[in-house]
Amino acid sequence: MTDLTEYIIPFSGYKIGNHNFTFKIQKTFFDAFEYSEIKDGDLVVELLLEKSETMMIAYFDIAGEITLECDTCLGDVIETVSKKYRQIYKFTDDEDLNLTDEMTHVSFKEFEINVAPLIVEFINLCKPNKVNHEEGKCDEELTEMLNEYLLVEEHIEIESINNEEDEGDLDPRWNALRNLKNKQ
Ligand SMILES: [Zn+2]
Question: What's phi and psi for 158, nearest 5 deg?
Fold first, then answer.
Protein backbone atom coordinates (compact mmCIF):
# COMPACT_ATOMS: atom_id res chain seq x y z
CA MET A 1 0.00 0.00 0.00
CA THR A 2 1.20 3.46 -0.84
CA ASP A 3 1.50 5.66 2.21
CA LEU A 4 -0.39 8.88 1.55
CA THR A 5 -0.15 10.39 5.04
CA GLU A 6 2.16 13.16 3.82
CA TYR A 7 -0.78 14.50 1.78
CA ILE A 8 -2.94 14.91 4.87
CA ILE A 9 -2.74 18.52 6.04
CA PRO A 10 -3.70 19.12 9.68
CA PHE A 11 -4.84 22.69 9.00
CA SER A 12 -6.64 23.30 12.30
CA GLY A 13 -3.30 23.72 14.06
CA TYR A 14 -2.05 26.23 11.49
CA LYS A 15 -1.83 29.97 12.00
CA ILE A 16 -3.73 32.37 9.74
CA GLY A 17 -1.43 33.07 6.80
CA ASN A 18 0.56 31.23 4.16
CA HIS A 19 1.87 27.69 4.40
CA ASN A 20 4.05 25.96 1.80
CA PHE A 21 4.32 22.29 0.91
CA THR A 22 6.29 20.35 -1.67
CA PHE A 23 5.27 16.90 -2.87
CA LYS A 24 7.32 14.64 -5.11
CA ILE A 25 5.05 12.48 -7.24
CA GLN A 26 6.18 9.19 -8.73
CA LYS A 27 4.71 5.88 -9.81
CA THR A 28 3.89 4.73 -6.24
CA PHE A 29 1.58 7.73 -5.88
CA PHE A 30 -0.44 6.76 -8.97
CA ASP A 31 -0.55 3.13 -7.77
CA ALA A 32 -2.77 4.32 -4.90
CA PHE A 33 -5.43 5.47 -7.37
CA GLU A 34 -6.65 2.62 -9.55
CA TYR A 35 -9.00 4.94 -11.41
CA SER A 36 -6.19 7.26 -12.50
CA GLU A 37 -5.73 7.20 -16.27
CA ILE A 38 -2.14 8.26 -15.72
CA LYS A 39 -0.15 5.42 -14.19
CA ASP A 40 3.35 6.84 -14.04
CA GLY A 41 5.19 10.12 -13.91
CA ASP A 42 7.85 12.20 -12.25
CA LEU A 43 6.49 15.48 -10.95
CA VAL A 44 6.86 18.10 -8.27
CA VAL A 45 3.76 19.74 -6.81
CA GLU A 46 4.24 23.00 -4.95
CA LEU A 47 1.28 23.86 -2.76
CA LEU A 48 0.67 27.27 -1.24
CA LEU A 49 -2.11 27.21 1.32
CA GLU A 50 -3.55 30.57 2.33
CA LYS A 51 -5.49 30.20 5.54
CA SER A 52 -7.98 32.82 6.69
CA GLU A 53 -10.79 32.81 9.29
CA THR A 54 -13.43 31.79 6.76
CA MET A 55 -11.61 29.70 4.18
CA MET A 56 -8.37 28.29 2.83
CA ILE A 57 -7.22 28.88 -0.72
CA ALA A 58 -4.92 26.20 -2.09
CA TYR A 59 -2.70 27.04 -5.06
CA PHE A 60 -1.23 23.99 -6.77
CA ASP A 61 1.73 24.38 -9.10
CA ILE A 62 2.30 21.11 -10.94
CA ALA A 63 5.41 20.54 -13.05
CA GLY A 64 7.24 17.54 -14.43
CA GLU A 65 6.68 14.61 -16.73
CA ILE A 66 3.80 12.19 -17.11
CA THR A 67 3.92 8.85 -18.90
CA LEU A 68 1.08 8.35 -21.36
CA GLU A 69 0.04 5.62 -23.79
CA CYS A 70 0.43 6.31 -27.52
CA ASP A 71 -2.95 6.11 -29.33
CA THR A 72 -1.29 4.39 -32.30
CA CYS A 73 1.16 1.84 -30.86
CA LEU A 74 0.24 1.85 -27.13
CA GLY A 75 3.92 2.47 -26.29
CA ASP A 76 5.02 4.99 -23.66
CA VAL A 77 4.97 8.68 -24.50
CA ILE A 78 6.60 11.09 -22.04
CA GLU A 79 4.78 14.42 -21.87
CA THR A 80 6.15 17.48 -20.08
CA VAL A 81 3.50 19.33 -18.09
CA SER A 82 3.37 22.60 -16.19
CA LYS A 83 -0.03 23.68 -14.87
CA LYS A 84 -1.51 25.71 -12.04
CA TYR A 85 -4.79 24.96 -10.29
CA ARG A 86 -6.68 26.53 -7.41
CA GLN A 87 -9.06 25.04 -4.87
CA ILE A 88 -11.04 26.90 -2.22
CA TYR A 89 -11.87 25.18 1.06
CA LYS A 90 -14.79 27.07 2.57
CA PHE A 91 -15.32 26.63 6.30
CA THR A 92 -19.05 26.16 6.76
CA ASP A 93 -21.59 23.87 8.37
CA ASP A 94 -24.28 24.96 5.91
CA GLU A 95 -24.85 21.80 3.85
CA ASP A 96 -27.11 23.62 1.39
CA LEU A 97 -24.49 26.16 0.44
CA ASN A 98 -24.07 26.22 -3.34
CA LEU A 99 -20.50 25.32 -4.18
CA THR A 100 -18.74 25.42 -7.53
CA ASP A 101 -16.28 22.76 -8.71
CA GLU A 102 -13.51 24.93 -7.45
CA MET A 103 -14.90 24.99 -3.92
CA THR A 104 -14.93 22.32 -1.25
CA HIS A 105 -17.06 22.40 1.86
CA VAL A 106 -15.10 21.94 5.11
CA SER A 107 -17.08 21.59 8.31
CA PHE A 108 -15.89 23.48 11.39
CA LYS A 109 -15.63 20.05 13.04
CA GLU A 110 -12.95 18.94 10.58
CA PHE A 111 -9.29 19.44 11.39
CA GLU A 112 -7.44 18.02 8.37
CA ILE A 113 -7.73 17.75 4.59
CA ASN A 114 -6.26 15.13 2.28
CA VAL A 115 -4.99 16.75 -0.91
CA ALA A 116 -3.88 13.51 -2.64
CA PRO A 117 -7.18 12.84 -4.53
CA LEU A 118 -7.20 16.44 -5.73
CA ILE A 119 -3.58 16.21 -6.91
CA VAL A 120 -4.28 13.03 -8.89
CA GLU A 121 -7.35 14.71 -10.42
CA PHE A 122 -5.34 17.79 -11.43
CA ILE A 123 -2.55 15.69 -12.95
CA ASN A 124 -5.14 13.76 -14.98
CA LEU A 125 -6.49 17.09 -16.25
CA CYS A 126 -3.03 17.71 -17.76
CA LYS A 127 -3.51 14.76 -20.11
CA PRO A 128 -3.96 15.92 -23.74
CA ASN A 129 -6.91 14.55 -25.76
CA LYS A 130 -4.65 12.95 -28.32
CA VAL A 131 -1.42 11.19 -27.46
CA ASN A 132 0.96 10.16 -30.22
CA HIS A 133 4.64 9.60 -30.79
CA GLU A 134 6.32 11.95 -33.23
CA GLU A 135 6.00 10.68 -36.80
CA GLY A 136 8.12 7.59 -37.37
CA LYS A 137 8.81 7.15 -33.64
CA CYS A 138 6.09 4.58 -32.97
CA ASP A 139 7.06 1.13 -31.79
CA GLU A 140 6.82 -0.99 -34.95
CA GLU A 141 6.47 -4.28 -33.15
CA LEU A 142 3.62 -2.99 -31.01
CA THR A 143 1.89 -1.40 -34.02
CA GLU A 144 2.07 -4.70 -35.88
CA MET A 145 0.67 -6.62 -32.93
CA LEU A 146 -2.13 -4.10 -32.56
CA ASN A 147 -3.00 -4.34 -36.25
CA GLU A 148 -3.11 -8.12 -36.05
CA TYR A 149 -5.39 -7.84 -33.05
CA LEU A 150 -7.69 -5.48 -34.97
CA LEU A 151 -7.81 -7.94 -37.91
CA VAL A 152 -8.85 -10.75 -35.56
CA GLU A 153 -11.51 -8.51 -34.06
CA GLU A 154 -12.72 -7.69 -37.58
CA HIS A 155 -12.96 -11.35 -38.46
CA ILE A 156 -15.11 -12.01 -35.41
CA GLU A 157 -17.30 -9.05 -36.34
CA ILE A 158 -17.81 -10.41 -39.89
CA GLU A 159 -18.85 -13.78 -38.52
CA SER A 160 -21.28 -12.29 -36.08
CA ILE A 161 -22.75 -10.06 -38.79
CA ASN A 162 -23.17 -13.03 -41.16
CA ASN A 163 -25.03 -14.86 -38.44
CA GLU A 164 -27.50 -12.05 -38.05
CA GLU A 165 -30.60 -12.03 -40.24
CA ASP A 166 -30.88 -8.28 -40.49
CA GLU A 167 -27.67 -7.24 -42.20
CA GLY A 168 -28.73 -3.64 -42.42
CA ASP A 169 -28.16 -3.17 -38.73
CA LEU A 170 -24.37 -2.97 -38.65
CA ASP A 171 -22.52 -2.54 -35.42
CA PRO A 172 -20.95 0.95 -35.56
CA ARG A 173 -17.74 -0.49 -34.10
CA TRP A 174 -17.39 -2.63 -37.18
CA ASN A 175 -17.50 0.44 -39.42
CA ALA A 176 -14.94 2.18 -37.25
CA LEU A 177 -12.59 -0.79 -37.52
CA ARG A 178 -13.06 -1.02 -41.29
CA ASN A 179 -12.33 2.68 -41.70
CA LEU A 180 -9.23 2.31 -39.59
CA LYS A 181 -8.03 -0.55 -41.74
CA ASN A 182 -8.78 1.22 -45.03
CA LYS A 183 -6.64 4.14 -43.99
CA GLN A 184 -3.54 1.97 -43.87
ZN1 LIG B 1 3.39 5.32 -30.89
Answer: -60, -45
